[in-house]
Design brief:
The chain is of the alpha/beta class. The chain has a single domain, classed as Response regulator (Rossmann fold, 3-Layer(aba) Sandwich). 32% of the residues lie in helices and 23% in strands. It has 5 helices and 12 strands. Strands 2-1-3-6-7 form a 5-stranded parallel beta sheet, with helices on both faces. A 3-stranded antiparallel beta sheet has the order 8-12-11. A two-stranded antiparallel sheet has the order 4-5. Strand 4 and strand 5 form a beta hairpin. The chain is globular and about 35 Å long.
Amino acid sequence: MTGESVHILIVDNDERIVELVAWFLERHGYSVRSADSFDGARVAIRERRPDLMLSDVDLGMQNACEELPRLDQEGLLPPTLVVSGFLTADMRVELLALEPVLDTLAKPFEFEELERRMVACLARAEGTSSLPPIPSAQPSENPGDSGLRAGESEDEEGWIEVGPTVTRESGEGGFE
């Protein structure tokens, strides 16, 4: 399942992220809607159930660790890929315990990696793949390597600041 027949719901309260991800996905033939809260996601899901939901973790007053289980209990949680710069190992385990949560992807990411993960999630949701969950990138074993990409910074609490990137050569980019 790829392209125009695939309906994606992006749940993120950062308008810049939604615009960038929607732009990429629409260029690749996906149908995209968005919600800036889990309340908005409930409305969107009831209007038209997406094939895949891309959900951030922290939406200000709402958090995926609380809201995704509620959506699941309500029978509304569609196949979901959690995409966030605020994932911890414990959060990942907690979220992946929900059957509809198929994978997680840490920001920053490259668009191609996002699409690869989406395709794998869609295949698993359709039952056409026996692929195991895609492992997240592991921290570097090199003690001198922080695991951050160029231009990233980590604050004193361990949060990574992210922003959009575009390579000059191709005009293609990713999201940090």
